[in-house]
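Posted in: Structural Biology > Protein-Ligand Complexes

Title: Requesting predicted complex, iron/sulfur cluster in pocket

I'd be grateful if someone could produce the 3D structure tokens for the following input. Sequence and ligand are given below.
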Amino acid sequence: MLSLTKEDRVRMLSAVSRKGAAFTALRIVVITISLALLVMVPVTGLARVDLWGGDHLLLGESVDFFAALKGSIIAMAIMYGGTFISNMIVGRFFCGWGCPVGYVARFGEDVANSRSKLQEILMHLKGASFVATFIIAVMLWWVDPRVMIDGSPTAKAVTAGIFLIMTLGGLGHAFIWRFGFCIHVCPIGLYYRLVTSKAPVGIVFKEIPNPCIECGACEKICPVKIDPKALGTVVEQKATGFDEEPERYGDAECIRCGDCIEACKMVFSKEAGAIPPLRFGRVDEHDSQDTSSASSP
Ligand code: SF4
Ligand code: SF4
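-- Reply #1 --
Done. Output follows.
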């Protein structure tokens, strides 16, 4: 494999975010739908707890605090239930495409990959706007936004203070922690790590018709630091108590972000008609490959 430095990764990330238009546009669509769903619940009155004015809502009706809280918890459980179902089909796709926290981590990478001061400032502004929008979406579940117009000075100050603290936390995540949160801390990610999905759809490595040139670009760009070429290969047998279940490399880690595919596409982009070996597809299409590196993700 070619030796690639950290700077190579930065250059590749930068090129992928500039040229990977198909995935970039698609990711914006998916994250917009995700945020719209998050906002829709409190704004339509499906469920909202109003810690300021006590105007609690459930299915559009005014209800007491506990009924609204119960409704909010059920709405959250349904939304997360949707991601668990998608996990059974496409693995951690939600982490790589629909999760606002994961999306925030991408802004941090964009800032690090900026090629000029102006671009860096613009990326900071873009990231900060997204973080602020996400925090507002979360706060709408807990407070009627009219507090910022009709609220007392104390209510306004408390609401603005919570917004600022949460936004600063989000920015810290974006520009310092980045995907480290998704890998080590996120409770949804931890759940996925515990119950690996064996989803039928994922990143597939298939050598026909173009062989891998072992450039290492896909590995270098992967935000969760795994080898995309080895995904799907069986690495060990897991004792379940009832049966011996085969465990596939990367099921618990790969967030199906597609960065490795974009990097691989770029490597092959100068060859007319070339089909890169990495792609989305059915995991059972995966070519057998040397997985000596797969046992230590
Ligand atoms: S293996 Fe590819 S799709 Fe999976 S997390 Fe890494 S870069 Fe993203
Ligand atoms: S799969 Fe593509 S990006 Fe990865 S090493 Fe092979 S040619 Fe390079």
